[in-house]
Every structure is written in structure tokens, then in C-alpha cells.
Amino acid sequence: MSYEGSSGVVSGRQSGRPTLEQVAARAGVGRGTVSRVINGSPRVSEQTRTAVARAVAELGYVPNQAARALAGSRTDAIALVIPEAEARLFAEPYFLDLIRGVSAELAEADKQLLLTLVRSEQERQRFEQYLAAQRVDGVLLASVHGDDPLPDRIRELGLPVVMNGRRSEAEPVPYVDSDNIGAGRAAVAHLVGRGRGRIATVTGPLDMYVARARLGGYRAGLAEAGLAPDEALVSTGDFTEEGGRRAMRLLLDRRPDLDAVFAASDVMAAGARSVLREAGRRVPEDVALVGVDDSPVARLMDPPLTSVRQPIEEMGRTMARMLIQEIAEGPDEPRRHVLPTELVVRRSC
Amino acid sequence: MSYEGSSGVVSGRQSGRPTLEQVAARAGVGRGTVSRVINGSPRVSEQTRTAVARAVAELGYVPNQAARALAGSRTDAIALVIPEAEARLFAEPYFLDLIRGVSAELAEADKQLLLTLVRSEQERQRFEQYLAAQRVDGVLLASVHGDDPLPDRIRELGLPVVMNGRRSEAEPVPYVDSDNIGAGRAAVAHLVGRGRGRIATVTGPLDMYVARARLGGYRAGLAEAGLAPDEALVSTGDFTEEGGRRAMRLLLDRRPDLDAVFAASDVMAAGARSVLREAGRRVPEDVALVGVDDSPVARLMDPPLTSVRQPIEEMGRTMARMLIQEIAEGPDEPRRHVLPTELVVRRSC
DNA sequence: CAACGACGTGGGAGCGCTCCCATCCGGGGC
DNA sequence: GCCCCGGATGGGAGCGCTCCCACGTCGTTG
Predict the structure, then answer these.
(1) What is the pLDDT of residues A4-40, one digit of tens each?
(2) Strands B112-118 and A175-178, bridge-based pairing
(3) What is the CATH topology of the domain spanning A180-309?
(4) Domain boundaries, chain A
(5) CA of B71 and C1' of C3: distance in angstroms?
(6) Which of A115, A129, A159 has the CB atom closest to B115's CB atom?
(7) Which of B93, B139, B264, B327 has its CA 20 to 30 A from that of B80?
(8) Mutation to test the B interface, candidates A92, A136, A152, A265, most B Cβ within 10 Å
(9) How far apart are CA A320 and CA A334, in angstroms?
(10) What's the CATH fold of domain B77-177+313-339?
(11) Do A134 and B17 make contact, defined as CB atoms within 8 angstroms?
């Protein structure tokens, strides 16, 4: 005998798994009653419930998902969409952490995760087809650009959406974001506290709200410390290591006297760090460095990088929770969550 | 008017999307004929095909997936299972790369990817339920341990499976693996070529085939170079940074005269590297270092780490391809693919 | 010139559920 | 003692598709 998990699971012959009908027959009740038991309806007597439960166990019955979806017009699945281009950009563990959070929350709610990496316009269109085919009950969108029409398109299809991040200050679609402004302020405040006064920043691409917000936080931090803003201390990167390198070179050119850098991502900080090393600047003695993400890269850098941590997994959980609620209860007023960030101090400043 | 993508997509009112029947009526043909056109059957006249295609476009028809699955008993979806514990262990981008490959191949075949992170025994059981609910046509398993019964259980359910990696030398289930033995040999050969003669290794946990295979490659490499094996030069890690650190300390204790280390992962190499630094050994002057994975960590280390690259994305693609073929054509003889690895030389040796 | 395939086509019969209405039963109120 | 009501139950009617059989309509063969 092989081990069968729950009793009596007749190992899955193609000839077929038991149906509701068969369970009903075995329990000596009607189809409707079994359905009620399976779905936890209260309008069933305790006795009947027990009988049905036993029949289910004996037959190893598992409801057929396709039939359920067809009859009930819900799939118990949600899609998580990740633009492939971004997947390469971001500090690598970002999306894995996000997936982890989403997955954990969905598992609790007994829902499936459909992962969609979108790598071309063609695939994006195909994705819209999937949505129209009613494969999912809702959509989670990771990393949207400022001009992305997808969120609105999905809403037009009548599907609930929650985004990770927002496209602009006034985002109409429900979203979960981290406090990027707070991240910038915390970084600058920390640098100021260490006695730095000529603090530069390497930003992300400014068509992304996240980049603008971190830059805004940087400026707010300077203002709060009574430091004058200086556009020569601001250089635009693109969240890549090479972009960070370029931006850093520019900064050193323009303001060789800078004594600190706030990079809007760890990866760009790594790029900046290599340029600083080539330029003979010591970190942190000559130039202090702060990144964002608190990724493994930060821990492994030499010296280890001070970085602003985002609660990525928690963002994933929150997104999933919001979406599930909207699916269950219909559209609320647009909801938004902004989760706090946290400065993790290491030796780079 | 809002933009509608393809013409006439009546934006998704809950009142409902068009059905096969409606398309048939509009095109003036029968249901069966529309189905044939949608599914690309050749037994339709060119003229009819055109008429149906027009009706489809005009109505913005998209076949309902649930109905299809119910009637046709296939879902066009496959599951990718990743044990959560492993997701933390591995060099982070590993699974993202794997997902990327799988996703790309599935997109081409117009199949959906269901991602399942399994983080507990309870979730594993729930996952088996999903399989029984016939939500997917096949399963891809990432990172299996030596004693994992899941692959066999899935086969018992009658579902095609392909694994990433294998549980032992004689793996009965179809799998895709990288040439781990070759990886170890290449690393050792390179170190020997650089004049090193007292080459140590930090292995992975030896209950995983991948760890045993890399160790086997290391030994084969020594033998080919005519070097005597020495068990004092072998230390077991667990694929974590801390594990690498511990193993390295042990090695330095036992053989302070070692002049090279082959670590079975980049992350462990990073751990080893920090211990070497604390011990005042210079890399590569005193001790040369080689890792496995060619992860971002390798590039960012100081000095950048020589590492054996695995074609992770390609493994993902291959797995998906194998699975799709098995779904389409039924079980073949067990198939296995071992993909070549490649040494990426950097300054650490 | 009749018979016969082959090709195109229409549509019935499910697939296995959920929804919902009709039915049944027992107990309490008058 | 009769009627009414509410809880428990059975089962018909789909959900939208695929499968497959049956039915023309031709062109072809003997």
C-alpha cells in the first residue's frame, strides 16, 4: 500500500475524480446539500454535515475548479503583473520579496497567484485578453510608470486593481506605497547628524513618482536642516549601477567638495561607490553614502552601506489584503496605504 | 468616447461579455463552426473563417476560460512550485531568473503561470488539493531535497512534472539540471592553472545532490591535476553566508597553508571572503577564491569574484518546454537535460 | 449515371458546479 | 386541532464551451 494522505484517495486515474453528485449519492443526500456543506453554508443540520464530510473524505473529493468558476463566475485567482524591464532594474530581491508577501496573504485566503511577467507590448495586449477571459478576480500591478494606462484599462474591464507604488501624487487607483519622502528625509537627517553639509543626491528616472518622491524627501531634509538647496548637487540616474556611476562622475565634476551622497537605490549607491573609489575618495571618511532598499548588496558592500529599508514583503501583503477585500465587498472609495521606511545604519557614514 | 483597444469592446459591464453563441448568430453560422475557427481547426472554409473572424472582432469576443477548462478538461495553466525555505537560501536572483525563463516559454505557448511558494507542510498539503482540483495541466518543481516525496506524489495524481535539479544520481522523474560536476572541475582546473596547489572547498549541505555533485567535480578536478585529495581541505556549509563563514574558519584552522578556496555558491564565497579578510589573508594574493552562480554579489565583491555561471534562465525555458511537450504528447521516456556551466573569470584569482 | 467519399457544417449532449425555487417537515400560535 | 412559518433539503436550470455525430453538398469514381 502506498501512503495516501487523506483516506481513500483513489490515486488519480484519468478515468476521473469523484464529482459532487457521487458524494451526494454516497452520503444519501442531494447535490445542493453537498454544495452547501462544501461552501460552509449555515443552513445545514449538524448531522447531515457530518455525513457529507465523511463521504467527502472517503471518496477523496475535491471540487473541480473549472466547474466552480463557470457556475459561480469567480476564479479564486488573482494576477500579479510585473513589467520585465523593471524586474531587471530594481534591486533584485525586490520582486521576490513582494511575491513572498502577496503569496503569503493569498495562501491564507485560499486564492491562487497567477504571475505575469510582461516583456513587450504584444505580451501586454495578450495579458488584457487573459483578463477578459475571466481567468482572475483581480489584478495586482507592480511598478508602474507615470504614463502607464494599464491600471485604468483594467478598471474599465470591471476588475479590481491594486498597484504597488503610484503614478503621481494624485493617484486615482488604489495603491500601496512606501514613504519615499520620509526615506529621503531620514537619509539627509542622518547625514546632517554626522556633520555633513554638502550632501549630493543621485536620483532615479524622474518620470517615476518614486524617484521624484525620494528627491522631494531629500530637499525637505535639507530645508529642515537649514541647508540651502543646490541644483549642482542633484544628478539624475536610472536605478542601474552604470547610471549611478555616471551620475556620480557628474557630481564629482560639478562639486568636488561634496562630502555625502544620498543615492535613491542601493544599486546606484554601488555604482557611485566604485566611482568614488576610483577618484580616491574614502567612504565614509571623505564621502558618506546612503542608499535605499537595504538589499543584500548593501550588506555586502565594502564598507557595508547605510540604507533606507522599505517593508517590501509587508507591501505585498497589504496589496493582497486590499484586493481581496475589494473583490469580496465591491469597490470602496479608492484606498491608499503608505508604509513607513526605516533607516538601517552601517559603516558607510 | 473612451479608447477601446480592439473595435467595439463594450467595456466590461458585469452584464456580460459576448458568448460563442452570440458570435455564431452574428456570423450566421453554428456554434461548432465558431469553435473551430477559434481553435484553428483546418476544416473550415476560408470564407466562413473570415466571416467568423469579423464577428469576433466586432463583438470583442474572448473565450471564457472556465467554460473551456470544464468542457475540454485542460486549463492551459501550469504551476511552478518554489519551497520558501530555498527561496531565502539561494543567491537571490536565482528564482527570478528561473521564473523569467519559465514565463517566457509559457508566454510563447500561450499558457499561464501559477506560482506557488510553499512555506509549510500545511501549505504543501493545500497545494496537493489544488492539483487535485485540476487547476493546472502540469507542474514545475524548483529545488528539491534528496528525500522530497512531492515529485512522486504528483505523478501519482497523473500530472506531468519536470524538476529543476535532481534528488540523486538516479532520478526517475524528468528534470533539468546544470552540469554541477563540470562546475567543480572547471573551478579547480582554473585554480590549478593559476599555480595553486592547496585548494580547499566549502560545500553545500550534502543531503542535496547539487552539493554532492559540486564536491564530486572538485575531487575530479584535483585528480585530473594529479593533486592528492585531502579531507582536511573539505568543509561543509549550507549555502548561507554565515555557513560559508563557519566553514572557512574551520578550513583556516585545519590547513592555515591553503592557497585557494572553491565555494559551492557565491553567497558562501562572500562569507568566506569576510573571514579571510579578518584573518589578514589577501584575495587573490594569498588565497584565490572561486564561487558558483555568477550572481550580482560576485560582481560587487571586492575584489570581484570569479564564479561558475549556471544558465538559470535557460534552465527555466527548458523545463517549461519539456513540460509543455509532455502535456501535449503524453509521457515520454523520462527525459533529462544537463546544461553546461561556464567559468567567469574575475580578479579573485 | 448511380453510388460513394470528403469536406463543411449544425447542433445535441454533456463537463461539474452554483443558484434558486419548490417542497417537506415540525413546532408554536390561536 | 388547524394553520402558518421557518429551517432543511432536493433537484432543475443554467454557466459557456468542446466533442462528436449526423447531415447536406459537392466532385469523383466505376
Answers:
(1) 333 334 333 334 789 999 999 999 999 999 999 999 9
(2) unpaired
(3) Rossmann fold (3.40.50)
(4) 20-63, 77-177+313-338, 180-309
(5) 38
(6) A115
(7) B264
(8) A92
(9) 15
(10) Rossmann fold (3.40.50)
(11) yes
